[in-house]
Amino acid sequence: MTEVTPVPVSAWLIRVARLRVTAGFCVAVAAFWLARPTWLSLGVGATVALVGESMRVWAAGHLEKGLEVTTSGPYRWMRHPLYVGSSLLGAGFAAASRHPVAAALVVVYLAVSLQVAARLEEATLRVKFGDAYDRYVRGVAKSSSRPFSAGRARRNGEAQAVLGVLAALAILGMKVWLAD
Length: 180
Fold this sequence. Notes:
Blueprint: H1 11-34, H2 39-60, H3 81-97, H4 100-129, H5 131-138, H6 150-155, H7 158-179
Helix pairs in contact: 1-4, 2-3, 2-7, 3-4
């Protein structure tokens, strides 16, 4: 068995991670307040956001959090498909908002929070799974052929995320409808 050396994680990284959810709600409120969507921007943004949420559902349907280094589904090709999906979601909402400050808030929030989350996650996985995670990072881990599971996606909280995306799109749709 190989010995795993803990990866040092700075205190500021942990503080930023703890503020992620609160900051996310604040950014969302500000972005919704500032948003000036049109039916066209909402259509374009919703398309991108739904692609992002689809990526998240696909990833969540393969992920066994804390039990293994997942190598099936999108994890075959990328380390952080949930974060890629979140980035697409954010890009979709930024486009739908049709407001430069709202878009900038979303982009900056995602850039900072997802970078912090990825660094903490990688440090945790390296400590927990050691060589198996290092092989995965190097791209030499054997891929699993485990099939997608809707139940697994649900257990990983993606059903609530889908509802959140649909609610956010509905709010933006209401803003367009009320502005007409």
